[in-house]
Give the backbone structure.
Amino acid sequence: DARMRTFVAVLAYSGLRISEAVGLRWQDWDGAGTMRVMRAKGGRPRAIPVPEKLQVELKAWRKAQRAEQVAAVWWDTEHDWILSTDVGTHWDTHNARKRFKLIADGHPAKGREGICPGAVPHSMRHATATIPNSPAHARWWRKVRAALPSTAAALRVGPPPSSLHEVDDVG
């Protein structure tokens, strides 16, 4: 869904820790190329670049999120989280990890194959530092794009190094 596509895109493009990603508010983003991470590790805020492709994803998610807000019976308007629940409340790291695991490992009961078995949200942090031109990188992201078509098609970062061998057979 759009929420998970945005979550994966934020992790992949920014290299943020999961707690930093779920702590982002719309006011932290300037709507262009900079985001302030106010709830960073160590308690010191920092600014990070927001690549154009992540900007596109965030704008699309904002539109979808506003539609959710209109449809909701109640919405948390006090905090305005970027990655929120379907009623606008803070999305905690435990639930975010569980949902990420369903994408990474798959959901056999629903016939869904995982895109990178064993990966965790922190893997995306490491992925931002990998070389994006290897054949294994290309195979991994083809698998991601197939699982999350509208967002992952735009992602251009590398996979966690430990996952490269797992996708050697992907065409």
Summary: Residues 141 and 152 are 8 Å apart (CA to CA).
